[in-house]
Amino acid sequence: MIDEQNNLITVLMPVFNSELFVKEAIESILNQSYKNFEFLIINDGSTDQSHAIISSFLDSRIKYVNNKVNKGIVNTLNEGLVLSKGKYIARMDADDIAMPDRLTKQAAFLTANPTYKLCGSMAIAIDATGKETNNLNRPQHSAKIKVFNLFRNAFIHPTIMADAETIKKFAYNENFKYAEDYFLFSQITMSYPVANLHERLLQYRIHGESITSKKKAEMVQSELKTIAYLLSFLFDKVDQQSLLVHHSILRPEDAAFSEHEIEHHLVNILRANRKKQVFNQRLLSKQLQKDWYNYLLKSNNKSSLGKFIGSDLFTFSNLNLKQVIKLLLK
């Protein structure tokens, strides 16, 4: 059982124009079964009623910072890292709802496993009304997370709790805006053991505010830089074509490449890792075969099954009969 008295947690929650949901988010933290925390709320220049709602709470654990002008999410998060005093730092978003035992369970895991520096969880997606829409899953174990993260963010940002010293050492990077969490978690994942608890410890709200085209362009550039960082562990040089092909696996709706280009890139990853042993080869092989299958399933190629089985990416040990049947029937 974790010694709460000697394990202060900082819950870091940035707020920007979140008047519709921030009250519920705050209440979900104040009602945690784990009591020894500081709740660092940073209002980043909101122009709605967020300030009034936050100010209405009188709990002494709340440490409130009210920025008069908007500094942006990266600067606000880093401001929070500097101000935090906890041994662990848990992230929270102003439109989400934490389950009552979230802090208890994550702090217990990190305390029992001190080599692990980052811990996330599964989540439940909810809409603007709070209705559950679907479950959000991520790989649990460090080796699987490392492989999964090579292709897409392995953590749901507002579910994470991290060792404070570690997350402060890396911090959020302004040069990776709108994918700052993906790069930060990639750095930690490539340096330390990490985990996702197999429990749904957050209700993650998905609602109508879509990302603007300008922000999306910046996000794509940040994702590309993160991919370049990850691929640099396998390749001495990562060219632009390889980056774009790899990014099309992360966001298949944004780009189209030939089957040959996709297959060639994935095979190169498999072969490079066989030499350098950066990732678990068995898990990487399974992930690459899955991504190759997903690409073929969406393609117009009528010979997809033959391409799938005939590829160097295919192994019988990773064979999934449902995949074969779907390719056969497409």
Write the layout of secondary structure elements.
Blueprint: E1 9-15, H1 22-30, E2 37-44, H2 50-55, E3 62-67, H3 73-83, E4 88-91, E5 97-98, H4 102-112, E6 118-126, E7 132-136, H5 142-149, E8 161-163, H6 164-170, H7 180-189, E9 194-205, H8 213-231, H9 240-250, H10 259-276, H11 281-298, H12 304-310, H13 321-329
Parallel strand pairs: 1-2, 1-4, 2-3, 6-9
Antiparallel strand pairs: 4-8, 5-9, 6-7, 6-8
Helix pairs in contact: 7-8, 8-9, 10-11, 11-12
Keywords:
Spore Coat Polysaccharide Biosynthesis Protein SpsA, Chain A, 330 residues, Nucleotide-diphossugar_trans, 2 domains, Glyco_trans_2-like, alpha/beta, Glycosyltransferase 2-like domain-containing protein
Describe the structure.
Strands 1, 2, 3, 4, 5, 6, 7, 8 and 9 form a 9-stranded mixed beta sheet that branches. This protein has 13 helices and 9 strands. It is an alpha/beta fold and 330 residues long. The protein has helices at residues 22-30, 50-55, 73-83, 102-112, 142-149, 164-170, 180-189, 213-231, 240-250, 259-276, 281-298, 304-310, 321-329; strands at 9-15, 37-44, 62-67, 88-91, 97-98, 118-126, 132-136, 161-163, 194-205. Helix 8 (213-231) packs across helix 9 and helix 10 (259-276) packs antiparallel against helix 11 (281-298). Helix content is 44%, strand content 17%. InterPro entries: Glyco_trans_2-like, Nucleotide-diphossugar_trans. This is Glycosyltransferase 2-like domain-containing protein. Residues 10-146 form the Glycosyltransferase 2-like domain. It comes from Pedobacter jeongneungensis.
